[in-house]
Write a structure and sequence with these properties.
Blueprint: E1 4-10, H1 16-28, E2 31-37, H2 39-49, H3 57-67, E3 75-78, E4 96-102, H4 104-112, H5 118-128, E5 132-137, H6 144-155, E6 159-160, H7 174-188
Parallel strand pairs: 1-2, 1-4, 2-3, 4-5, 5-6
Length: about 200
Amino acid sequence: MFSEKITLGVTGASGSGYFLHLLQALVDSNRQVYLLLSDAAKIVLKTEVGEDWPDDIKHLNPFLENRFNAQKDQIIALSSKDWFSAVASGSSAPKKMVICPCSCGTFASIAQGLSNNLIERAADVILKEQGQLIITPRETPFSTLHLRNMLTLSELGVTIMPLAPGFYHQPQSIEDLQAFMVARLLDHLKIEHQVSKRWCE
């Protein structure tokens, strides 16, 4: 039995390593994860870390189980148009969702309630059901339009957590920087972890 269900959306913004670390941490903490991976995210994943994941959902799910050493049905990958999935309905969706990394286009669509794909719809469900939504934009600089969209979402209770790691833990690798942000995400999700050092540790 899994301790909690969480939706993880992944868009085409740069930062594949963040979501890979986060997904592994969620699996290790016995969470069940509904994984929503955009087509652009798959392209970025291959570009940044050289991983070529199956396009067919039937092949992707067993691949993920092996890749992350997950239990059966612990990671449930869904297609972008799977409107009959649990995450698309307020009566069955998890109460927590993270979009990591999140493109500016995606959070603009969420801010306007467009629901053009399953990531946007899942986020809309979280908002209307007053659940926890964490969005991690990876862009620089932010335009005024980006900031206005962030303000709109923040006013709705969304946690905006830019992928901007600190350095006080004296990181020695890119993985250390990724772990810093994953630790902050886990803190906000109220998940116990030992992913990264805390301040003054």
